[in-house]
Amino acid sequence: MKSKLRRDFKDLRWRISVYRARRARAKSKATFIGVTGSSGKSTVTALLGHILAAHRPVYTQVLANTIHSVVSTLYKRMKQVERPDYVVMETGAYGIDTIRPMAEMLQPHVAVVTMVRLEHVTSFRTLENVALEKSALVAALRPDGLAVLNADDPHVADMGAGTGCRVVTFGTAQTADYRVTEIHAAYPDLLTLSIHWRGGLLELKTSFPAEYFWLPTVAAVATALELGVPPDKVAVQVATFQPVVNRCTVLITRGGPQFIIDAAKAPWHSINLALDMVAKATASRKRIVLGQISDYAGSTRKYAHAYQTAREIADQVIYTGDNAHRSRASQADRDNGRFVELRTAKEVSDHIKRTAVAGELILVKSSSNLHLERIALAWTHDVKCWIHICGKPEGCHTCGLYELPYEQHRAHVMRRRRAKVWRQFRGLFGGRSS
């Protein structure tokens, strides 16, 4: 009985939240921009928000990309920016028919789609199903809306057919409305590129360490230019933007290694991109830490394929996590230290601390469940939370409790909540005279 009451109460609260969200959306005069795609959407969202912020007031919702996030943003979080002119939101797909409810709630004026790759394999099975899911954001556009689509990806480019909305494309294709050329990045040389568009030529410098970031850069830039942001202002904002945390974030330690931390996602299609980044980099020594690969079809031989590529690039390859044993590294590679197998992030951290060489480059690549960002964090903070898998979806920077043992997290959060309630209580009644 009590469980049913709790469910009913929870359902009622959700219905009220949805009602408030729809009401807030109807009242808002902002231009709403939705961003989706199998990869790059977080960077597009954050970069576009950064560009627009120099133009007019903007609210940007990055990483939190579920229906609950959309609802919460519309009726509550948007108030953090007084009357924003733009609302930029990331929308993610986790299964069949997950984007449509978000898109219908958002009612976007602009839809940006980066790429279609086979993600969440057990749910979608085929590229066509992924494309159909992503296209729901474009289908939800208003009649006077704008679709910003990747011209190089046929699954994305086809989303513009029959929409009745204005469509602009970006990519390396000759037919793209925003055509990118002269893409170059070879760390420590950061990404530079040129964009040819109807307004002429726009040359950009970025803080990204890899060439493949041209795609989210051009997607954000094309959208901003279409919304009327002056090209010179766009170039300045792109140059000052820092990568989203754990998405190829660069950490240069004093007297120690240089880290490129790519520990937020690791779908199979991104592995070779990350390895290619290391191959083009210049460093005294190169090491690659590979954790969990996600969203791939087929057998676990992917780990063996990745190792064969990585060993030709790096002086040492370190596998960690529950699939660390799947590298198929030879005994010779194990004996001479070319390959190291360690099961936990703490073991990897200790190994790197013992063997680090000043100026060496270390790529940390994994899906988020292992929180391998702690390996780099340990060089600048006293990391004490080394639980193998904590189950928290947010990264360690967002959680902020990495300097406490995991066993103390719950008590710390409860103390923080009680302190907040007490501050609110004092604010209500503390100033009253008796």
Automatic annotation (TrEMBL):
Keyword Ligase: yes
The entry's keywords: ATP-binding, Ligase, Nucleotide-binding
SUPFAM superfamilies on file: MurD-like peptide ligases, catalytic domain, MurD-like peptide ligases, peptide-binding domain
Mur ligase central domain ranges (all copies): 35-223
Pfam families (UniProt xref): Mur_ligase_M
Gene Ontology terms for molecular function: ligase activity
PANTHER family recorded: UDP-N-ACETYLMURAMOYL-TRIPEPTIDE--D-ALANYL-D-ALANINE LIGASE
Protein name stated in the entry: Mur ligase family protein
Organism: Mesorhizobium opportunistum
Source lineage: Bacteria, Pseudomonadati, Pseudomonadota, Alphaproteobacteria, Hyphomicrobiales
